[in-house]
Design goal:
Bound molecules: adenosine-5'-triphosphate
Number of helices: 11
Distance between the termini: 27 Å
Strand content: 25-35%
Largest sheet: 6 strands, mixed
Shape: elongated
Structural class: alpha/beta
Radius of gyration: 23 Å
Number of strands: 13
CATH topology of the largest domain: Rossmann fold
């Protein structure tokens, strides 16, 4: 891993458009060497924040810095930060190669980089086709290639997974993993949690321009719980407790209602196997959302109350 990782820092950032406060007193950091998901429902303020990080929008107050400096004060902005905003911002008559050449010239990057990226991002065969016929997946690849022209240490990608099929997502995961493993700082926004959950190490969640949660995915997501419906619930609870006490593992069983248990610390197959071994009846097993999934569901359905919100 390279040692020249750059931290992205947003500190007390606010952006107002007249009556609308798009971003409100927002603070978080994005570390190098990992992929950070920037999550929030539509209109939460993700794009506005990323635009402030790239100097495209001026903050009303607060700061947005890259390696300690605002974008406009970086010595080589396009060689330090690669950003991608709109997957459709191509001249329809340009080929992929034309498009990259224009941006390479603007950023002062060599033409050889264009050929290199066309290969690296799987666009070599489509290089001389006009972008008007490009699929969403090809557009996302071309956008990422554009962001990578200056071989930047920091990548700010707005909805890079938007419109990708599972194969495209797997490809994106591989590319971003490689970039992060090389010590780069990778921030990707999304309004769909499930889209990025296999992709990100850390998350920053915002709603209505404000921070809701931030930290490593593993800590925020928490282990899933299993909801068990059983006419033998009482015996099953006691059996689960005894067997795990004997095995020395941590397990918690809560009685939710008559015939209904919530088990923490054992997955659904584990509960089913144990019940079968003791000839106890199980009518239903449901793996519950992780706390992050539940939090995001509450955010998008607007049922979040302040005391449910957790920030680190
Ligand atoms: N130039 C602008 N003028 C006025 N209001 C704006 C402007 N840009 C953004 N907004 C408003 O600021 C809020 C945040 O928008 P933003 O695009 O940053 O959200 P987002 O999280 O990126 O949403 P999405 O997932 O839909 O892209 C929205 O209410 C939006 O309408």
């Amino acid at each position: 891993m390279s040692t020249d990782g750059l931290t992205v820092e947003v500190s007390h950032l606010t952006k107002r458009y007249g009556e609308i406060t798009a971003v409100r007193d927002l603070s978080f950091t994005v570390e190098p060497g990992v992929i950070t998901g920037f999550l929030g429902p539509n209109g939460a303020g993700k794009t506005t924040t990323m635009r402030m990080l790239t100097g495209l929008v001026s903050p009303t107050s607060g700061t947005a810095t890259i390696g300690g400096k605002p974008y406009k004060r970086l010595a080589r902005p396009s060689g330090t930060v690669g950003a991608m905003f709109d997957a459709n911002a191509f001249h329809p008559g340009h080929t992929a190669r034309d498009h990259l050449r224009v941006y390479a010239a603007m950023g002062g990057h060599p033409d050889s980089r264009v050929t290199e990226l066309l290969h690296q991002l799987g666009l070599a065969e489509a290089a001389d086709r006009r972008t008007r016929g490009f699929s969403t997946g090809m557009r996302q690849r071309l956008n990422l290639a554009t962001a990578l022209l200056g071989d930047p240490r920091v990548l700010l990608l707005d909805e890079p997974g938007n419109g990708l099929d599972p194969e495209g997502m797997a490809w994106l995961r591989g590319v971003l993993r490689g970039l992060a493993a090389d010590g780069r700082t990778v921030l990707i926004s999304s309004h769909v949690l499930s889209e990025v959950q296999q992709l990100v190490d850390d998350v920053v969640v915002i709603r209505r321009g404000e921070l809701v949660a931030a930290g490593p995915w593993s800590r925020l997501a928490g282990p899933p719980a299993v909801l068990v419906t059983s006419p033998d619930a009482e015996t099953l609870a006691a059996t689960l407790a005894t067997s795990h006490a004997n095995a020395g593992t941590v397990l918690r069983v809560d009685t939710v209602g008559p015939g209904l248990l919530r088990v923490h610390g054992l997955d659904a197959p584990g509960v089913a196997d144990l019940a079968a071994a003791h000839r106890l009846r199980v009518h239903e097993l449901v793996t519950e959302n992780t706390s992050l999934e539940q939090l995001f569901l509450d955010l998008t359905t607007g049922t979040l109350t302040n005391d449910r919100a957790a920030t680190s």
